[in-house]
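On clarity, I found the account of how folds are encoded harder to follow than it need be. Since the whole study asks how a given chain folds, the encoding of that fold should be made plain. For the editor and my fellow referees, an illustration may be useful. An entry of this sort, consisting of the sequence and the corresponding backbone structure tokens, reads as follows:

:::
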Amino acid sequence: MKHLLSAVLAMTLVIGLSYSAAAQTEVTVIGPGGVRAAVEKLIPGFEAKTGYKVKPTYGSGGVTHARVVKGDVFDVVIVQPPYQDVIASGNVMTDTEKELATVAVGVAVKMGAPRPDISNAAAVKKLLLDAKSVSYPNPLGGAVAGVSFEQTLKQLGIFDEVKAKYRPGQAALVAKGEVEVLVSFLSEIADPGVDIIGPLPRDISTPTGFVAFVHTNAKDPAAAKAFVQYLSGPEAAAVHKGVRMVPGR
């Protein structure tokens, strides 16, 4: 009996030390703002399940991308395509690549305002030309949604007209009625004072993807890989859908 108790105590000590080590491991993550809503919802479940801690950093898609290429070290990096230069930098483990989800650029207006037609390119063009003001994320700051939307404006042939009434992307301005139309990634529109109409038609706006990698210099590759797997697993898929994203394959 004495030997059995000793064995049980030893095993308990080993398990306790293992959990303690996990709890002390902090997984640092960098990603663009479009993935923030999903990642923030997923962090508590991952921490509870593994004992690891997660420290996220968010920025515009362009800035996030540039920091990874430059060599800033985060255990897990989330980027948007194209990301050939991220791979070429040697700063990520290519065999850890996981597509997390895609998200569309969409339209929102003030809650209670008439809901516009955005079912086709002609309807979107009319909405944007008729609107007194349009807000979207600043492409000069590296916002991928803003870059994508300005490409849409050029495709529609109304770039100059809409740019003349542009306000930097803030849902709060739309909720207050200070801006008429908001255009942004659907996952980033969270203000309860706005009414999300839906995504822009795919023939004028292609959804963008979010892809995760483990950094080549991750301090704990096993912990980083576990988080990437969690971000792309079945629990994550439900969260992605909940913030208007389409889970990856």
Remarks:
- The radius of gyration is 22 Å.
- DSSP finds ten helices and eleven strands in the chain.
- Residues 2-102+209-247 form a domain with the D-Maltodextrin-Binding Protein; domain 2 fold (CATH 3.40.190.10).
